[in-house]
Amino acid sequence: AVNENSLKCLNEFLASSSAQERGQPKQLVFYIRSISYSGEEYLREVKITLSTTDLRATVMKILNCFGLSDAHVPKATQNDNQSTNRPIDWHPSFYTAMGRDNPFGINNRSIVLTLRSWLRMNIERSRSHQEGMRYIQNDIARLLHKFQTDLCLQAIRFDSAWGIQHFRGCLMSFDRLFKTHPKFLKHVLKGKTLVFSNCTGVSRLGEVVLSSEDVPQTWITMLKSVSAYEAVLARLPTMEAKLSDLLCQAQVVRREKKLGHIMAEDYELLLNRVLNSLRRCQDYVFATFNGKDLSHLQVRVEGESNPLMLSSLGQFLIPASVPGTMMVDFIKENMDKAELILKDIPSLLAHEEKSRLEALEFLSLLELQKDESVTPAQMISSCSRLIEESWRLLDPPSSSGGVTLQGSRLRVSHYYSVMQDGLICIPWDWVGEDDL
């Protein structure tokens, strides 16, 4: 909805610019998908302030803000600069005498939105959503308990961008399936983790994944072939051990992203490609590391063409498409940095959890979580500042401008939002009253 409104405003501004009409400066906000340095997807906020009637300058500014190429934009000609059809820049006294608002008298400094001011505008909406979805939450809790008990599941969760109502719909469909195939489902799923996500199969972690967009008949077809994945899962540790040998005993680890499950058979193909790349350059590996033991380093094979990078957890994220020599060079250049992160990460994660629990208690929250793209350091910073600001966030609502987070569910993310179930999302670097 934010992107749609901004596009409408942008269209109006471009139309007025092409007609050489002078309007008030506009600030547009867009949310675009980006990949963080940890390899996780998140929504990045892009703010664009438009104030010129120069159509070319406006287009160039938009392209630059989104990091897009402007090579295809025609260069400005001398005739463009000598155009006589230009708007008149009136002196401020003209607008005063005519009783009109000066479109250029607006403070160009962008309005800073503080956490407290945003909460004042949205906390009641969150409470309304939370109360309205309470019966759905209760229904979900009932079905989760039923499946975990009757099917002896290790765990069951929902990893999808769809809302809570969609999760309930998945559980109700699965419940109907369970009523018609109780013995079969218990035999197939006993002791396993069941995940409703955006794909169907068995993940590289051995979790049974059902797409929330598929019909129950498709689920049954896949569940009948779950046993066939056992052979694939059994081959993965052997292939990871071979990869470790080719990388001087570096640890090969797996970690599933919430919205990016890699199926077992796909992971096998990715491992095979990386193995072949390294086999072709073993002399280069030996010459680069000189037989050094890298067992203290961690490597994750992530996707087909993801960026080659070092994650916030100190793990090397390796895409299958990268050449072996480039992979080796990158590991060599970032070894020291990875060692420092891996050394500090246990205490950092412990500090993060401690900060989260303290903020949860100080603000009397029902729940406090974070997006996968938020690093431990960012979460610690956000929680510490929430604790410092807690006296401002627990004001009685009846007081002037009062706002309280007591009884709310909070997620530390990269943007402000109220989710369908009343969950409040705030950016980790939110602005406090003392930051102005």
TrEMBL record:
Domain annotation DUF4460: ranges: 2-64
Any one annotated GO CC term: mitochondrion
Domain DUF4461: 114-430
Pfam family, one: DUF4460
The organism's place on the tree of life at top rank: Eukaryota
Protein's recorded name: T-cell activation inhibitor, mitochondrial-like Protein
Organism of provenance: Elysia marginata
